[in-house]
Design goal:
With about 280 residues, the chain is of the alpha+beta class. The chain has 9 helices and 14 strands. A hairpin with a 3-residue loop joins strand 7 (about 135-140) and strand 8. The relative contact order is 0.14.
Length: about 280
Amino acid sequence: MKFSAAEASGIAALLREVARAEILPRFRKLASGDIRTKSSPLDLVTEADEAAERRLTGALSARFPQAMILGEEAAAADPGLLTRMLDADLCFVLDPVDGTANFAAGVPLFGVMVAAVHHGETIAGWIHDPMGDDTVIALRGEGAWVETPEGGRQHCRVAPPAPLGGMVGAVSWSFLPPERKLHLLPRLAQLAGTLNFRCAAHEYRLAATGGLHALFYNKLMPWDHAAGVLIHAEAGGYSAQFDGSPYSPRKHVGGLICVPDEASWQALREGLLGSA
């Protein structure tokens, strides 16, 4: 199964439409009752997440009536959807507002992430930036690019490899077990710099366009990573889980490191995790 470039652009236009209709009008205008917690105080949902997911689900179902739609908020209500995704001929995996904590706090750093998954393998990915109004798109085997509303394209390319002491990385350590946090945090000083946007959408965009060298994640829900890992790979990057196995949206545990090449992965994995 493949998407044409025209189909990919059409889905990017859909994400833009949904962001303009459901997300941006609510930015910095949420009432206290429009923000709720889910599994923990770090796990938020807003009226914008739910409205955007409903609209995306309806629009994608209309265009692709045979496709399964797996939204983050729908999966919170019915975890069995994660299992059903694996057998679907085509499943769209949606994160309607990635970076919800930023959105809820009025920080303009959030995105819309969509992945197309064919029998458990990602074949296309989109990360839309509502504030910048452009979309990073990847089609498996066909590269990754940033596309503007006017149709302009800029090819994506990861940063050149760097030694461990020259790497800048986005490190998400909040969901690590306590003992692994204690092991990891002092080791971050080996890197040239670290950041955490609280938004995988923008971290993946930055890595795919050469703005940093490494991404480090522990929590691996598919709506946070399926699109980003494909985009990073199609921009020339290398990714593997902490144990060296390939990433798959089928896997939800085991951590993930994304870097420019395999040698960088070995260096970062050893430097940050060692034998842990």
